[in-house]
Design goal:
alpha+beta; five-stranded mixed β-sheet; 8 helices; globular
Length: 186
């Protein structure tokens, strides 16, 4: 693919002054739990009060992490942009174990190729990803997410930031109401 005009739409929702960033690895069960709360957070906190930004935090112990992060970012270049990327990320979360290794090192996915993984994700999400996945310089977007996480000292997923400050006392296990309170108080 030689289309130099591609654009990865930022994974951002809401337009409020409080910036809530969440660093997620798509197959991490705790990240999936946090991801599944973001719509409720936006609804409760208010689109005009917060901006939610998903930052993808690829982690090598989640063996397919790099391929899946690239799929999500590839999806953001397609029609629908961030909403298409959200559908892909939701499909990964809904079928998380089919995109992960047993105990990070074994199980039925040991024989799965990247192409088979992409085809599986296309079936679950209903989105054709292969062409966008092959964008030659899509890695610049992947590298941006990685560099941004590193500059902020992010290691684990999920990690939460409010207005640029890491919130070590926030967890995916918290109720959405606790998140809203924390965002309002910070």
């Amino acid at each position: 693919m030689t289309n130099a005009a591609w654009h990865a739409e930022p994974l951002s929702w809401g337009h409020g002054p409080r910036i809530f960033e969440v660093f997620l690895e798509p197959t991490c069960p705790f990240s999936v739990r946090a991801f599944n709360k973001l719509d409720a957070l936006l609804a409760q906190a208010g689109e005009d009060r917060i901006t939610i930004r998903i930052r993808l935090q690829s982690q090598p112990w989640h063996m397919f992490s790099g391929v899946l992060v690239r799929c999500i970012l590839a999806a953001s270049t397609l029609a629908g942009g961030r909403e298409t990327a959200r559908r892909v990320m939701a499909a990964i979360g809904e079928h998380r174990e089919e995109f992960e290794f047993a105990h990070h090192a074994g199980g039925p996915n040991m024989d799965v190729t990247p192409n088979e993984l992409i085809e599986r994700l296309e079936r679950y999400s209903g989105i054709k990803l292969k062409e966008a996945f092959a964008i030659p310089d899509l890695d610049r977007e992947i590298k941006w997410h990685c560099k941004y996480a590193r500059q902020n000292g992010i290691h684990v997923s999920p990690t939460f930031m409010i207005d640029g400050l890491v919130q070590t006392d926030m967890s995916s296990g918290d109720d959405v109401e606790a998140w809203v309170k924390k965002i309002s108080a910070s």
